[in-house]
Design a protein that fits this description.
Length: 696
């Protein structure tokens, strides 16, 4: 058995591998490319490519691929082998600098939201040296960015990298004001906690809804769900434990620091958290984690469900995005610190985040919007669709004291002056108790909890980074010209708290009273994806992204289209799957059972006369319910037909949201009722109970 330290990162062409294998000069050039975003010279790229190939072949790789993240939200790869014909008829294994740095996948089948029509269809991938190459199943994967020949981003990576650059630029301006001359870069960091369900593959294979859509579209609630609260942090079952061990090994080999694992609230639900990393690497790693989870599950006869709401009535799955900002000198900018100077700097960065989240609530909501996540946001267990920030009472009191020019704490005589006074210590755990807040300060980072389990973390972080960059820009603009920095800083923080305190809410976010209170405060409550996405192209949002060069206006328009397209396509598949299952499985099964009831009833009546019987009463009930289910079926069928004639994307998305989804709900309700009335032997697929409690 090899130990963890030995296998960790063994499939990654990491900095230390490069240091060991590359000529000194080349390594320096690679390092400069990574640290300062410098382009790698062509000859250096050739040297790196050759060594990378050699390393990959030693590890058994035969192919390479440019690994990228198109707007589908999943990763893409097209494998090419290293094989090249040699003059003597044999082969040689080759991998050139050009093949490393640039690829040309056929872009025409990836979503582009109209960019394809406007620009050339061809797209290309370009090596992103800030994320290391790795080997996955015998293939050397090179993390790349994907764009059109006009330079428009066709992926999730380019805007993310641009947003990190925007934040870096503005954060450095602010840090200079505090005299941090030695800091040369600020990067955002992310630790995404990933929730998922693990079910037995037999149950999965018997359900077309799971196969086609990743979630159950039918299913009556089982007698036991999560009401006993016996699963959260419960003992991990041996089969799950074996899966987790394998998963950790596979992730560690890829240099992914998977560290925490536990059972979640719902039966069959679990969580995995890595140690945080720089945002673009964390994003790559999270994509890989989701992929590897599915593959490892398969080896154990299990299926990993990453859908946000695979089962109605029990918790859905999210992804907590822990986020902070770090300097290259090792300082976490959301760490309060001990001196007045450190405290003041902390308070300014904290205020920047508060302002960013308040100013761009709509974008934050949009960044987590999807048909799947709509089932979660606003549902019982999840943060509501309203965005608010939890700070914890101590920090809240400090900000209030600053805002109102009041003394802080019982013993303090003096007013709290930013940059002069040391902040009173606030215990870290006091900030971490609120589990209902969509955006919570947890001691030295913020935790954005609205993300859905299936989605890439790229967009939420792109939004967060850019919005915070904008706050910092405005702060730097004001403070750079100030004659008395400390006073200007104090006044700025005070003003900003006053302007944005409506976004701070330390109470229970699941309370209905909060939704009313939020409306009074003027906070936005965008309940569905179409409601949210309608604000994507609002002038203030276009101004934000274009001014920080994160998206061009055309890129935003294309993404707006992709959002709506994805939403309608997904629900369209769900609706059609329901129609198929109802017509081919459920209605025939119920009909067969009814006819058995009917023939039993007739036989019985011949002998016993017409005494009230199980058969008679059930038959009456079931016949009624079968008729309503069939009505619901026909209603959904005609709604789906109608939807296909709507061309306008916005109108189409609204139709899916308002008409199709409600027809789907009606069909489900009547079929779920039939499930409770039909003999188990007749029911055509595994029930919720079968699915949720099969893994032991
Ligand atoms: P919990 O949320 O259960 O209290 P932790 O606070 O230990 O757990 O961390 C949860 C996640 O937050 C982990 O993935 C961790 O690596 C990440 N994290 C911790 N510090 C930071 C940071 N400075 N930036 C981003 N993520 C962080
Ligand atoms: Mg957490």
């Amino acid at each position: 058995m090899r130990d963890t330290a030995e296998i960790f990162g063994e499939n990654v062409f990491s900095l230390s591998v490069m240091k060991e294998r590359l000529p000194k000069e080349t390594f320096k050039e690679v390092k400069a490319a990574i640290d300062n975003g410098k382009r790698l010279p062509e000859d250096a790229a050739g040297v790196v490519a050759n060594e990378m190939k050699q390393w990959a072949i030693e590890k058994g790789a035969t192919h390479y691929t440019h690994w990228f993240q198109p707007m589908t939200g999943i990763t893409s790869e097209k494998h090419d082998s290293f094989i090249n014909p040699a003059d003597d008829g044999n082969i040689i294994l080759r991998f050139s600098g050009k093949e490393l740095t640039q690829g040309e996948p056929d872009a025409s089948s990836f979503p582009s939201g109209g960019l394809r029509a406007t620009f050339e269809a061809r797209g290309y991938t370009a090596w992103d040296p800030t994320s290391y190459a790795f080997i996955k199943e015998g293939v050397l994967c090179i993390p790349t960015a994907f764009c059109s020949y006009g330079g428009e981003a066709l992926d999730k990576k380019i805007p993310l990298l641009r947003s990190m650059e925007a934040l870096n630029k503005q954060a450095l301006r602010v840090l200079k004001l505090f005299g941090n001359e030695d800091v040369t870069s600020v990067k955002t960091t992310v630790g995404p906690e990933q929730e998922y369900f693990l079910i037995d593959e037999k149950g999965y294979n018997a359900r077309r809804d799971l196969i086609y859509t990743g979630r159950t579209l039918f299913g009556a609630p089982p007698p036991k769900g999560q009401q006993m609260e016996d699963h959260y942090f419960g003992v991990i079952k041996p089969r799950v434990q074996a899966f987790m061990k394998d998963l950790n090994d596979e992730l560690w080999k890829l240099g992914i620091m998977a560290t925490t694992e536990h059972n979640e609230v719902a039966p069959s639900q679990h969580e995995l958290a890595p140690i945080f990393a720089t945002t673009n690497i964390a994003t790559d790693h999270n994509q890989l984690t989701m992929e590897i989870m599915k593959k490892v599950a398969q080896k154990h006869g299990l299926v990993c469900l990453l859908h946000e709401k695979p089962f109605a009535g029990v918790n859905g799955s999210g992804k907590h995005n822990n986020w902070s900002m770090s300097t290259d000198t090792g300082a976490n900018l959301l760490e309060p610190g001990d001196t007045p100077y450190e405290n003041a700097q902390f308070l300014l960065f904290l205020t920047a985040v508060i302002k960013a989240v308040d100013d761009y609530q709509d974008l934050m909501r949009i960044s987590v919007a999807s048909a799947g996540n709509d089932h979660r946001l606003g549902a019982n267990e999840a943060p509501p669709a309203v965005i608010s920030i939890f700070l914890g009472s101590e920090l809240n009191d400090i900000l209030e004291a600053i805002e109102k020019d009041e003394p802080y704490g019982a013993k303090e005589k003096e007013l709290l002056k930013v940059g002069v006074h040391v902040l009173p210590k606030f215990p870290k755990d006091s900030t971490d108790r609120n589990r209902t807040s969509p955006f919570a300060f947890t001691g030295n980072k913020f935790e954005f909890r609205m993300l859905g389990s299936a989605a890439s973390v790229a967009l939420p972080n792109t939004v967060l980074n850019t919005a915070v960059a904008e706050s910092l820009k405005q702060f730097a603009d004001k403070l750079e010209g100030a004659s008395d920095f400390t006073t200007a800083l104090h006044d700025l923080i005070k003003e900003e708290i006053k302007a944005h305190k409506r976004i701070i809410f330390n109470g229970n976010g699941y309370d209905d009273a909060w939704i009313e209170e939020a409306a009074r405060r003027g906070l936005s409550n965008l309940r569905t994806t179409p409601d949210a996405v309608a604000h994507y192209l609002d002038p203030k949002n276009v101004a934000l992204f274009t001014s920080h060069k994160v998206y061009s206006e055309i890129e935003m328009q294309s993404r707006h289209e992709v959002f709506l397209e994805k939403y309608t396509k997904l629900i369209d598949i769900e609706a059609k799957t329901m129609l198929e299952m109802a017509k081919q499985d459920i209605l025939p099964a119920v009909s067969a059972y009814s006819s058995e009831l009917a023939s039993n009833l007739m036989a019985k009546q011949e002998i016993l006369g017409s005494a009230p019987s199980f058969e008679e009463e059930t038959l009456k009930e079931i016949s009624n319910d079968l008729a309503s289910a069939y009505d619901a079926y026909k209603a959904l069928e005609s709604a789906v037909e109608k939807s296909s004639s709507i061309d306008d994307l916005v109108a189409k998305a609204d139709f899916f949201k308002d008409d199709i989804l409600s027809s789907m709900t009606s069909l489900r309700e009547s079929c779920d009722k039939l499930e409770t009335e039909t003999a188990a032997d007749y029911w055509p697929f595994p029930t919720y109970g079968d699915l949720l409690f099969a893994v032991r």
